[in-house]
Amino acid sequence: MKNSEVTSKDKTTEERQLRLEMNRAAAMRSRNKKRMEMLRLKSLVVDLNNEKVLLELKLQQYEMLMQASYGENNMLKVEMTQLMLENAVLKQNLKC
Description:
Blueprint: H1 2-95
């Protein structure tokens, strides 16, 4: 009878030990899964920040191009005004 009790206690102890190990393994898998998800999210944030920086640089580039175009447009207006004045002076001289 004692042998069966010892065997029964040993099995119970082994079962408890096995359950503990299984629970530890499950907890470790859960932690690892959470870590992997956190790393994935951090990587995504870095990618989004990089994309944001690239878009800001493109925006600055377009703004500089627009300013250059605006300045060029103003210079053309000044040249056109000068030509119109010269034309008016030439017409006036022809009339005289």
